[in-house]
Automatic annotation (TrEMBL):
Record flagged with keyword Membrane: yes
Record has Ion transport as a keyword: yes
Gene: fluC
InterPro entries, sorted: FluC
Family note: Belongs to the fluoride channel Fluc/FEX (TC 1.A.43) family.
Compartments (UniProt record): Cell membrane
Activity-regulation annotation: Na(+) is not transported, but it plays an essential structural role and its presence is essential for fluoride channel function.
Organism: Nocardioides pini
Keywords: Cell membrane, Ion channel, Ion transport, Membrane, Metal-binding, Sodium, Transmembrane, Transmembrane helix, Transport
Ranges annotated as spanning the membrane: 37-60, 67-86, 98-118
Bilayer topology annotation: Multi-pass membrane protein
Name the record gives this protein: Fluoride-specific ion channel FluC
Lineage: Bacteria, Bacillati, Actinomycetota, Actinomycetes, Propionibacteriales
Residues annotated for Na(+) binding in this entry: G77, T80
Listed Pfam families: CRCB
């Protein structure tokens, strides 16, 4: 399968989407209460995994590879974060909270994979047939 050539506009769309996603992620962090367990990162990653799984059901995404790129690697790429998750897990363990770190690691993996699978399942539902008439 050959991919279409990468154009500057494609890169700009992904970059703009990434900026939007990063700002949304920051707003979640700022709005969240400060607790030992990093709920904001968990929530962001699970929601992002679900939405990424659902994207193919959106007609605009199916019709436009540019919209798909702006929303997928762009917005959702900027919104979700593996690096923060890894760093937070490491920090929890290094701070003596090994059980919390393990729970966070396992919960993020399980919830993220489940959310992505649910999103993909929902995006594969058959579309209703148009009424004949």
């Amino acid at each position: 399968m050959t991919h279409p050539p990468i154009r500057a506009v494609d890169i700009l769309l992904v970059a703009a989407g990434g900026a939007v996603g990063a700002v949304l992620r920051h707003l979640v962090d700022v709005a969240a209460p400060d607790t030992l367990f990093p709920w904001p990162t968990l929530a962001v990653n699970v929601v992002g995994a679900f939405v990424l799984g659902v994207l193919p059901v959106l007609a605009v995404v199916r019709r436009s590879r540019r919209v798909a790129a702006a929303l997928g690697p762009g917005v959702l790429g900027g919104f979700t974060t593996v690096s923060a998750w890894a760093g937070q897990t490491r920090d929890l363990a290094a701070g003596g909270h090994v059980v919390v770190a393990g729970a966070y690691l396992a919960l993020t993996l399980a919830a993220g994979l489940s959310a992505a699978a649910l999103g993909q399942h929902l995006s594969r539902r058959p579309e209703p047939e148009e009424a004949l008439g």
